[in-house]
Amino acid sequence: MTEEAVVVESLRGSTGIEESNVLPEIKSVPKNQERFALNYVNQPPMIPHNIDGYQVNQANNTCLECHDVDVYRKTGAPRVSPTHFMDRDNRVLTEVSARRYFCLQCHVPQAQTEELVENEFVPAGKFGQ
């Protein structure tokens, strides 16, 4: 019995690599908005504001200017999770762990957009309500 090959289509669609394709419109992220509900346990919260111009690199992390434990009370921003101050051996650190320092690896700006890929995702349990 032979299995039928699954055809995988690029987000470019049928546009060849040598051709220019039409870029999708860049989604507008409002300056501030209500936070989206989480969809599953331990989901990294999405960012409810625009982050254009933010720098997160080895020398600077703009996110920590509002979210660090020393300033969040003054800014009204949510505090960085205590888990971000633990190394991989669960030792508590005085600074954000290097493995949690680059916020945009897990946290992304939220926007109401169309699905890029069709899916049947359903939030877990009472999440997403």
Could you explain how this protein is built, in words?
The protein has 129 residues and is low in regular secondary structure. It has a domain at 31-111 and 123-127: Flavocytochrome C3, Chain A, domain 2, CATH 1.10.1130.10. The chain has 2 helices and no strands. The chain starts with 63 loop residues before the first helix and ends in a 54-residue tail after the last helix.
Look at the helices and sheets and give the structural class: little secondary structure
User: The CATH topology of the domain at 31-111 and 123-127, please?
Assistant: Flavocytochrome C3, Chain A, domain 2
CATH superfamily of the domain at 31-111 and 123-127: Flavocytochrome C3, Chain A
Give the name of the CATH architecture of the domain at 31-111 and 123-127.
Orthogonal Bundle
- How far is the N terminus from the C terminus? 45 Å
| Percent helix | under 10%
Mean pLDDT over the residues: 85
Give helix and strand order, one letter per element, not per position: HH
What's the overall geometry?
A: extended
Rg is: 19 Å
What's the count of strands?
0
Please state roughly what percent of the residues sit in beta strands, choosing from under 5%, 5-15%, 15-25%, 25-35%, 35-45% or over 45%: under 5%
Largest sheet: none
Top-tier CATH class of the domain at 31-111 and 123-127:
Mainly Alpha
**Uncertain spans, ≥5 residues at pLDDT below 50?**
none
Q: How large is the count of helical segments? A: 2
InterPro entries: Multihaem_cyt_sf, NapB
Protein name: Periplasmic nitrate reductase, electron transfer subunit
GO biological process, one term: anaerobic respiration
Subcellular location: Periplasm
